[in-house]
C-alpha cells in the first residue's frame, strides 16, 4: 500500500476478483456444511462438532448476507472457512482439507485488496 504522507497522488484500482473470491468462499462453506449434514445422516446420530460447524457456518453466511445487503459492507468468508476446516479434522475422510481451508482463509483478505499506485515527484510505486 502506498503511504499518503509520502505520495501526494494515490490511485486505487478496482479489484475485479473480489466477486469470484466471494463465490468460492460461499460455495466451499455451503458445500462443507452439506457434507457435515450428510455425515450425520449417514451415521444416523448427531455428532456435536458437525452440528456446531453447520450452525456456525449458517450463522456466518447469514451475517455476511445481512451486512452486504443492509449495511453495504464488504463480506469475508474467512471465519466460515476456518470453522469448516476445523470440522474437517473430525471427518472420517479428507482431514487434510484443514490446510486448504486455512490457506484460503488467510489469503482471502489479500485477494480482495485493491491494488494501489502511488505517485511522487521523483518516482512511482505499485
Topology:
Layout (H helix, E strand, L loop, with lengths): L8 E4 L5 H26 L4 H23 L7 H11 L8 H16 L3 E4 L4 E2 L1
Antiparallel strand pairs: 1-2, 2-3
Helix pairs in contact: 1-2, 1-3, 2-3, 3-4
What does this structure look like?
This protein has one domain (17-112). The protein contains four helices and three strands. The chain has helices at 18-43, 48-70, 78-88, 97-112, and strands spanning 9-12, 116-119, 124-125. It has a three-stranded antiparallel sheet, with no helix packed on it. A hairpin with a 4-residue loop joins strand 2 and strand 3 (124-125). The longest helix has 26 residues, at 18-43.
Structural class determined from secondary elements: mainly alpha
Shape label: elongated
Distance between termini?
A: 8 Å
Please provide the ordered H/E string of secondary-structure elements.
EHHHHEE
**Count of individual helical segments:** 4
Mean pLDDT equals: 89
Strand order of the largest sheet: 1-2-3
Fraction of residues in H or I helices: 55-70%
Largest β-sheet summary: 3 strands, antiparallel
| Rg from Cα | 19 Å
Identify low-pLDDT runs.
Answer: none
Number of distinct beta strands: 3
Percent strand: 5-15%
Tally of separate domains:
1
Amino acid at each position: 500500500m502506498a503511504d499518503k504522507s509520502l505520495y501526494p497522488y494515490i490511485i486505487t484500482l478496482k479489484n475485479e476478483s473480489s466477486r469470484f473470491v466471494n463465490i468460492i468462499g460461499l460455495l466451499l462453506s455451503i458445500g462443507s456444511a452439506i457434507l457435515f449434514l450428510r455425515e450425520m445422516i449417514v451415521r444416523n446420530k448427531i455428532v456435536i462438532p458437525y452440528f456446531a460447524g453447520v450452525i456456525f457456518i449458517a450463522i456466518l453466511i447469514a451475517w455476511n448476507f445481512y451486512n452486504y445487503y443492509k449495511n453495504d459492507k464488504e463480506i469475508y468468508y474467512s471465519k466460515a472457512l476456518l470453522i469448516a476446516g476445523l470440522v474437517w479434522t473430525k471427518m472420517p475422510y479428507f482431514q487434510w482439507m484443514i490446510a486448504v481451508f486455512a490457506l484460503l482463509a488467510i489469503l482471502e483478505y489479500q485477494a480482495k485488496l485493491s491494488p494501489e499506485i502511488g505517485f511522487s515527484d521523483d518516482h512511482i510505486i505499485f
